[in-house]
């Protein structure tokens, strides 16, 4: 089962409790540490601007009150004739309004810049961390969902950033306004809370529901993306057309997306209905307070300026409080998503470096010894390799033969430490492979898989990936290409080694399967590896090319150990010894002649293939 097949595996989702929500908020300091690392300057300036901006609403309201009181005074009391103070006040309010606008725009700009930088940095961190993880972790559906959520949420995190900052800003603004209200009527604040709390609880409830829904849909959303890719991509178009699959994919897509739509609609509708009810309660609270303030203004215990100031403060407080409470749920929501991100960063690779690693032997003296090696893939109850006991001698060319699924690829992945054995051990020159320096082991292993990557990059880059530090070493790239028979091909291309390959980018040239293989094979010659592994990378080569490739391979790897996997016996027989695998176990091992004499499975398969050519 590969990762795509496992898309339909659903993660179990439990509802989120308030406690979990509060616990999730503990992720915020770590989040801000990340933000701070992104850009200390932008973070500081942004915070300062927000603090300045938070004092302005109260100031504007207060100056507004003074203006109205002054106007009332000038129009009722004829002994006051100088308008100077009034115009000063108007000028101040004008200045404050402009300042408020400028600050708001500055804050938005900084939020955007900081958010972009943060999203980029997080993406890089995710890629860097993913690179440290084990292959089998990528093959695990639950891990894959976590990675997916961490990746998708990078943009969401930038929203969280401005939300948390706005939250702090609004709280300070409210502090100012509350101080103003307290001076006049402290109980107004109580009324305010009563008006707003139902809306907050409603928001919290619906946010929980929406998080649970979205989280529960992660696997299926991945399938939706996959179907979208299958239905409209250059790589799939050929088979989709020939097998007339578009209807099949579209139907699956529709079924899934309709299901999402129905679930989301249900939630959105009840959210909107309840939202209206809570908003009405809020308005009722506001108008109750308004009536009281108006009453006091009529009796003269409040001035007209006080009336506008209080009504304005109350209105702003209400919308701020509502905003803060609503935002609290989405902040804690975001903090829960943040947990996904941090959980992803907490996943540790199991294939690790020994505390005091041994240097890799150069040259290898004895070779690799498999001692009762067995391997079982995570979540699989079958052994892919079992009871393997054999030696790959230094300088030996060993071919692996066996039917599909016999465990050949798994065996070479164990050699390269892409996996560690589930039981038994592999020794290299007498020491467990796990004791060696991991980077040195990888550097000394040149491995080309049957499903090698076709990079949509230039010919030179496609070869250089075999040893990326040498990407500028044109001489090495060309000599590697010569060894894998890719040089004549590169010379024929219009851009030679700088020719873009693949169709994804403009001026890209598509190659045939065999031509791609020659390019990929060149990667094996890019490094001075002591162990070379070719896992069927020649299957698409024509018979002559494959023969030549292996002739050269034998010459070029003189003195080096090599493992070849091939279903072509003409190739296999060139190896020093052949290991026959069946159901993950070693069935026969020996030279071509020995195995023919043995007249066992190898002989049977060999004659079967030879018969086809007669
Ligand atoms: N990532 C994986 N997760 C779970 N099981 C796997 C995985 N890869 C391979 N297997 C299983 O392990 C067994 C051995 O697979 P392996 O790829 O080693 O066979 P192979 O001999 O290389 O086959 P082929 O000739 O088809 O390439 C198979 O039964 C296969 O289904």
TrEMBL record:
Residues 368-608 form the ABC transporter domain. It is found in: Cell membrane. One of its GO terms (molecular function) is ATP binding. The keyword ATP-binding applies. The keyword Amino-acid biosynthesis does not apply. Residues 48-333 form the ABC transmembrane type-1 domain. It is a multi-pass membrane protein. It comes from the Bacteria. Its main location: membrane. The chain crosses the membrane at residues 187-206, 273-293. Keywords: ATP-binding, Membrane, Nucleotide-binding, Transmembrane, Transmembrane helix. This is ABC transporter ATP-binding protein.
